[in-house]
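Recall the central idea of this unit: under ordinary conditions, the amino acid sequence of a chain determines the structure it adopts. In this exercise we apply that idea directly, starting from the sequence alone.
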Amino acid sequence: MTIENKKVVTIEFTVKNADTNEVIESSVGAEPLVYLHGFNNLVPGLENALTGKTVGDSYEVLVSPEEGYGVRDDSLQEQVPREMFQGVNDISVGMEFTADGPQGPVVVEVVAVDDKTVTVDANHPLASVPLAFNGEIKDIRDASDEEIEHGHVHGEGGHQH
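Accordingly, the structure predicted from this sequence is:
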């Protein structure tokens, strides 16, 4: 069986910042990643590269920011009045909040704070970072009708309802 749309795929992976070689995340020594192929559950560059692979195949994939978490957009950083954070007494750099965005909730990170304003950034933390993935295909199976309808994996290694 090969990886194609509507297949549930189990992969072992390590992802590094391709510029610094710093490990960002890894499933090695932990649970492998289980995802539904073709439903935007992985960054596009990795999902595209895995298409056609079979169980036991290894992979090494370099993913550009455009095919990963996007290119940094300075318009997604803005200063907001400190009063917008009522009930939060101690605001510090690195804190994350959920804000209402044009397409629904969006996570923003505090990148600067002063007496009057808080600067927040809605870019993904890995925006503009080239990613290097490597790993192995561990399992492939047909997705259930319910998994396809919901757009994600159910059961072991996936989403539980």
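The radius of gyration is 19 Å.
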